[in-house]
Design a protein that fits this description.
306 residues
Length: 306
């Protein structure tokens, strides 16, 4: 029996297009966040970001009329996944930089997510990587380390900042696996609105009580926030969850190794920061690592669903 060819767009697999979009936006998002935090405190900026995201989504969801969660348990799982992904992850990573941890160190710590995912799923018997895929995880992490090496500054590291970054790593690693496990069939349109509203409810009181809602209105803050709302919060996160539904978790999260490569290019375009030789070698290593992890459709053995 002949197997039907997968649907393509202009001859390109839509899954590859979504993966490319996710990497491009996720990498650019680090630069946009860096710009936004020049004029806002972390919780205040995140409150603004998710307030705008919620306002944009309400009319869109009312017009599209997606399926809503049918049980309280389903609502709870969606909210937990959203607070982990948007609230704890972004809150931790942003506040780590606010407390003095360099952006390079934050990026390096968060780059451990594919390794954390691979180790967790392997330990639970839910995924099995081939030796070359394990090599790809290691090579990709070394590549990210080389990319950010120039910006690492141990003098800016504090225990509180490091704790916030590790908290963000645990949160995003848990969030991607949690949503894949407990929200496999939710409508991503309604789920995204629920998650942005829940995250807004988390950050709004923190912004007011901890920071006094500190914002300095500027065009750069507006531009960075609109970019992150439209392309990252609303689209890139949904793309990540869509990819997680259709691919092995380690293969999908390994794409995060490519985000520092994109960040290098965006920083060169905007700030004219030229990458050094070590960064270029690291970029090549990160690409090689992702290729090694994703080149096989399935590792030996039959993985269980995560």
């Amino acid at each position: 029996m002949t197997r039907a060819a997968p649907h393509t767009i202009a001859g390109i697999d839509p899954q590859r297009l979504l993966a490319a979009y996710f990497v491009l936006i996720w990498g650019s998002g680090y630069v946009a966040t860096r710009i936004a935090l020049l004029d806002a405190s972390p919780f205040s900026f995140l409150t603004l970001r998710f307030a705008l995201a919620t306002l944009v989504l309400i009319p869109v969801v009312l017009w599209l009329r997606p399926r809503w969660p049918s049980t309280r348990v389903e609502w709870l799982h969606i909210i937990v996944a959203g607070v982990l992904m948007h609230g704890f992850n972004l809150g931790g990573s942003h506040y780590a930089q606010f407390l003095g941890l360099s952006a390079s160190m934050s990026a390096l710590i968060l780059a451990f997510q594919p390794l954390v995912t691979a180790v967790w799923l392997t330990a639970r018997g839910r995924d099995q990587l081939a030796p070359l895929q394990w090599l790809g995880v290691a090579v990709g992490l070394l590549g990210v380390t080389a990319i950010v090496w120039r910006g690492l500054d141990l003098r800016t590291m504090s225990v509180a900042g490091l704790a916030c970054a590790l908290f963000a790593l645990a949160s995003i690693s848990t969030a991607t696996l949690y949503q894949r496990r407990f929200c496999p069939a939710v409508d991503l349109r309604s789920a995204t609105l629920i998650q942005t509203a829940a995250t807004l409810a988390l950050f709004a009181p923190l912004a007011w009580l901890v920071e006094g809602f500190e914002l300095r209105p500027s065009l750069r803050l507006l531009g960075a926030t609109l970019f992150l709302v439209m392309f990252a919060t609303l689209l890139a996160v949904s793309a990540l969850h869509w990819l997680m539904r259709r691919g092995a978790a380690t293969r999908v999260t390994s794409l995060l190794y490519l985000t520092p490569v994109v960040t290098l290019g965006v920083e060169w375009l905007i700030f004219r920061v030229s990458p050094d030789g070590l960064s270029l070698v690291g970029a090549a290593a990160a690409c090689l690592g992702v290729w090694l992890v994703t080149r096989q459709a399935r590792a030996p053995g039959t993985p269980k669903s995560a």
